[in-house]
Amino acid sequence: MTIEELKNHYDEEVTISGFVDEIRNLKWVQFIVLRDHTSKVQITIEKSEESNKKMVELVNDLTVESTIKVTGKLMESPKVKLNGMEIIPNTIEVTSKNEGELPFNYKDTSTVNIDTRLDYRYIDLRSDKNQAMFQIQSNLVRYMREYLYENGFTEIHTPKLLGAASESGSEVFEVKYFKEKAYLAQSPQFYKQMALASGMGKVFEVAPCFRAENSNTSRHATEFTSFDVEFAYINDFNDVMDLEAEMLKYALEKVNEKYGEKIKELFETELIVPKTPFPKMKLKDIYKELEERYDYKVKDEEKTDLTTEAERLCYKLAKDKFDSEFLFVIDFPADKRAFYHMRDENGTLQGYDLIWRGVEITTGAQREHRYEHIVKSAQEKGLGEDVKFYLEFFKHGCPPHGGFAIGVDRLTMLLLGIPTLKETEFLFRGPNRLTP
After folding, report:
1. Do residues 294 and 313 make contact, with C-beta atoms less than 8 angstroms apart?
2. Could you give all domains of the chain from N- to C-terminal order, each with its CATH number?
3. 230 phi/psi in degrees, rounded to 5
4. Side-chain half-sphere of 417: how many Cα atoms within 13 Å?
5. How far apart are CA 425 and CA 407, in angstroms?
6. Which of 207, 222, 224, 227 is nearest to 172 (CA)?
7. Which letter does DSSP use for residue 273 in this model?
8. In whole angstroms, what is the distance from residue 411 CA to residue 418 CA?
9. pLDDT above 90 covers what percent of the chain?
10. Long-range contacts of 256-260 (CB under 8 A, 24+ apart)
11. C-alpha span between 4 and 40 (Å, rounded)
């Protein structure tokens, strides 16, 4: 039984286990606050009761953060501030003892270095805030999954050991694979498209991805969890944008219903459920408006992509112009994107970025599905044998399709107003961190 379930068992004998969150040893009474992953409850021991003598001695020697198992009667007690209930115990068993002082106070990490927290992540994660963060993250993914399941998608699981890099570029982790070289997957992109070439019309995957980027920003990691979506028989990339917007709206609405108040209380931020459709703007128009509205100017050669500052200002632009926290950015130069992104007859990229709260959370596109066109694009990028197996997927028919990917950890960071990805990953991996 969890502490959250206790409210259904007043005046009954219950057995509950958890961490000792707090001990108050007063003259006539002892109080233990017991904590599990769902909530907290007060244990009350009257010292004057002869039958409590052994428990009193046990509590005298008990340390905070030890784990115990308690059996006793659950009482509804309006005077008790903590959930209006208390357990009057018959027995207390110490299941593990905290043998020493914690490396830091996880309940107040305001003066604790982030690297120290990560070194002792198993302590850091005990905080109410971190426990809530991962519950919220878990349910955010659950609701995105739910939306896709309800719309006919199939969840797949693709390999993470590849014989060729899954994206163009050199930012791959090379590993020894018996007598050959292999690479850790940068994304499931090639295999998502293979699934559509095989006749699976709508697929998605939630899985780790690996990027050998020597980047030490607040929003990058060498290993992260990606939520990848791909589906067939689209008319154009607007269908991809529409599906992503509806999925995010659905998931955020559900998260808000379940955790909206807790997000305000613990993270001091408000979850604003978006309206659809999300606004969209061409890249060149964004730079024009940023200059006119906020006097933000960059050189022409920098306008082929969004600068970090331009991304940040897109939040203000989206709020001021559209009353939205989201903004689709379209019409990027084709040479700045992967070879498998479709171009129209004028060479215009059929893809987009999605900006939320001033940070890019998605790159999406209609993919090139026509064999002769994708072969030509690969050749133009100087790609040969490495993508030969991938090009074969399109040789025998493949429907028009598109998709996108969202970084779960980055999405969580923006949702809860957390300053760095290091906190939203269960165990962060970056250029300078490979343990614990």
Report:
1. yes
2. 3-96 (2.40.50.140), 123-424 (3.30.930.10)
3. -150, 140
4. 11
5. 11
6. 222
7. P
8. 10
9. 92
10. 258/139, 259/132, 259/135, 259/136, 259/139
11. 8
Nearest CA among 392, 399, 365 for reference residue 378: 392
d(CA 76, CA 83): 9
Residue 105 corresponds to which amino acid? N
In this prediction, residue 23 has a pLDDT band, given cuts at 50, 70 and 90, of very high
Residue 92's CB: how many other CB atoms inside 10 A? 21
Own/partner long-range contacts of 88-94 (Cβ < 8 Å, ≥24 apart): 88/44, 89/43, 89/44, 89/45, 89/55, 90/13, 91/55, 92/43, 92/55, 92/58, 92/59, 92/68, 93/68, 93/69, 94/58, 94/62, 94/66, 94/67, 94/68
Q: Considering only CA atoms, which of 8, 6, 79, 74 is closest in space to residue 36?
A: 6
**What is the distance between the alpha carbons of residues 414 and 324, in angstroms, rounded to a whole number?**
15
What angle (nearest 5°) sits at the alpha carbon of residue 208, between those of residues 118 and 279?
A: 100
Q: Residue 215's pLDDT is what?
A: 85
Q: How far apart are the first and last CA of the chain?
A: 31
Q: Which of 224, 210, 268 is nearest to 424 (CA)?
A: 224
Q: Going by DSSP bridges, is the β-strand pair 280-282/326-330 parallel, antiparallel, or unpaired?
A: parallel
Cβ(333)–Cβ(343) below 8 Å? no
Find, among 123, 324, 350, 317, the residue nearest to 236 by Cα: 350
**Nearest-angstrom CA–CA distance, 211 and 364:** 18
Instruction: Show the DSSP H helices in 232-307 as ranges.
Output: 237-267, 283-294
User: What is each CA distance from 15 to 12, 31, 69, in whole angstroms?
Assistant: 10, 17, 7
If pLDDT is split at 50, 70 and 90, which confidence band does 163 have? Answer: confident
Q: What is the mean pLDDT of residues 317-338?
A: 95
pLDDT value at position 169? 56
Whether 168 shows a pLDDT value over 60: the answer reads no
Q: Each residue of 332-385: pLDDT tens digit?
A: 998 888 999 999 888 889 999 999 999 999 999 999 999 999 999 999 888 878
Q: Tell me the β-bridge partners of 175.
A: 182
CB 433 within 8 A of CB 121: no
The angle formed by the CA atoms of residues 70, 73 and 75, to the nearest 5 degrees, is 120
Nearest to 360, CA basis, from 402, 310, 319, 403: 310
The angle formed by the CA atoms of residues 325, 330 and 336, to the nearest 5 degrees, is 120
Q: Are 107 and 126 in contact (CB under 8 A)?
A: no
